[in-house]
Amino acid sequence: RLIIARSKMGALDFSAKSANDKAMKDLKENKIPAAKAKLSANNGMIVSAFTDLAKKAMEAKNYQTAIDLMKASRDASDATKFRTGNALQGLQKYDEAIAEYKKLTGGSSAEIAENGIADSQHLKGNDREALNAIYRTLGNFQNSPAEVAALAKIDQWGLQKKSSEFPEMAGQISNVYIQK
Fold first, then answer.
1. Cβ atoms within 10 A of the Cβ of 157, count?
2. From 173's CA, which of 7, 31, 40, 86 has a CA 20 to 30 Å away?
3. Residue 81: CB atoms within 10 Å
4. Is the separation of the CB atoms in 94 and 86 below 8 Å?
5. Residues 6+ apart with CB under 8 A from 148
6. Continuous H helices in 27-109
7. Helices vs. strands in the chain: H and E counts, helices first
């Protein structure tokens, strides 16, 4: 916009336009980016505070509060999705927990997601699907902490004693045990 102000003499004065242009340039180049950076930093502190509170709620086994805090944080990180799955598992909402873990299976957190799925399936009473999740872990994440955790679950759940129900298990896990 062209801002024109009349001077005392009645002549046109274009200096107001120049001052306006300088102010707009300062806003665009300095003040707006600084305000955005400040908002971003504040958002990070808020998410961190919600995350800390959610962790404390999880430790206290107050799972619904933890879920509410994680939702309120609006944090879409893999860690928050995994914690939400754990909280849902704590509330015995296994299907919802599995759905939350499945959101992670295509990314960098897939190995912990598969173990979360295995836990939820086992707690739900579906050892066949729990074993399928363990097989995916063993096949996709060799020599990882997730692989060791998956093998520990087989021992912990006593699935080796159920070889008649799961005849393929010996072949699936024996190669991994031999490597270890």
1. 17
2. 86
3. 21
4. no
5. 180
6. 32-59, 63-73, 78-90, 94-102
7. 9, 2
